[in-house]
Queue: 2 jobs
Job 1
Amino acid sequence: MKNIKDISNYKDFLNIIDFKDLLYSIYNLLENEFNNYLNYDYLKFDPIIFPKEALLKKENNVEMIALISSTFAFGNRKAIVNFLKKLFNILDLNQIQIDLKKLFIDKKIYENFLDYFSDNVLYEKLQSDKLFKIINDIPNEEKEIFNIISNNIKILFKKYYEKIKNLKYRWLDSKIIFSYILSIIFFYFNFDNVESFLLNGKIIDNKSFFLKIEMILNFLNSFTKIFLFIIINKNENIDNNNFYFDKNFSQKLKKDFIKINSLTPSLKSSSLKRFMLFLKWCSFYDSLNLGLWNKKFQKYLLYPLDTHILNKTTFFILIILYKIDIQNYNLKKSIEKYINKNINIMNKIIFFSYFYSSNLKEINNEEIKDILLKNFETFYKKYKICLKNNLKRKSFLKNSLNDAIIITDFYKIFSKENPLKYDFCLTFL
């Protein structure tokens, strides 16, 4: 069959091809792309290269480097890698860990500092008004301890300021970036690492797993805000409470807190793409991941969604739905836009369809086709109504937790054991 040159030709192909053969062609396309990108050379232009190199060097903070790298994995791929390269070149994470640990070497100081915020940092994202209230409510006899901590953190920031003063990424300035790095190190100071935090207590289902994830993000979010507040607070102590209600300072802090929320978003408003990327890197064992953790977490993970994943997956689902219901008006309207965006992918599907049906050396695997069909029927039974409703939306798939679940389950049609295996290749497809 000839290549499609415009969107009017796709109907011919979808009308002719058998449904099982369509699934099989998509399966072969995904597997072929996955194997093509199962190559270390491609990782040089991906943020995972930094924890990968740390792993090869047998460094002791690979997980932390992975968490930092995934957090800043938004925007242009080249810009991400260039920023992270600069960040890791100018900041010695091991030395900052040592410096921060020295600040809390006094157990009483450490426990007091943690107690001020312990009721808030795991179960909610700290807002500026709440932070002001917590600090102003510190008992008078303990305010001196908070002042000592604050001044020590300011000294720590000044130690690294010359190195980081020009460090910036997108809308994030050096103070926010440094505060976030401190919050990560402080998390490791409290919980050893992310894996041990997840393993502490029972995870019985997706809900309990995501509750743990939300707690980690809340901790990082809140302490980034706390450290930033301390760094930009020009007062030497907290005795003068009028400072905390200064209008200009409050407005500046609120704007900075919104920026911090973009680093550690909530499940209510996001699919947590970058944290899912971190979890995937740590949980899976292949050349595209790190394989640091217990494999038990794999079954809870969802696709790290970006525009590439959303676009490609929408395209795949729509052509399958079109094959099922060719007369559906909403489907016809939606599919043309995505066919137009993905002509090259459509041509690859046609190629694999033609190759596996005409190549005499290739024996069509009917067993795989039957498995794919069975997997699709399970998926379609679960999401039929949802997919029908999605056709009425402006965007068929969105960057949301619900759609991340749908997308993950969709790729289980083609790889039940490891549906996330196609994540990397879909970016380049």
Job 2
Amino acid sequence: MRATVVALVIMTTASCDSLTNQVCGELSGKRKQYADTLNEAYASHLHAEQVPCYPNYLQVNCLSAVSAKTLDSVELSARQFDWDEVLVYDQQKALIRGDIGSM
């Protein structure tokens, strides 16, 4: 009985992970190129990636101090790639730009 319950829990967990991966997908195309370009250009200052399961949200994590002018530029250019929201987090992981209210 116990082995059956354990097997059921493992199967359910694996199914959820598989479903999440299928539904959420991975960043690709022009948006992936944009994020890769940002990460390369600002490697020591920030890291950009898609928010998991929110394909229209770009998350930018500041690795060091980043000027407001640079963040304005990142946000403006991100909008050109149809990102609906740009979430910017400081080095302490506090949200400093963007809105998570619709998540």
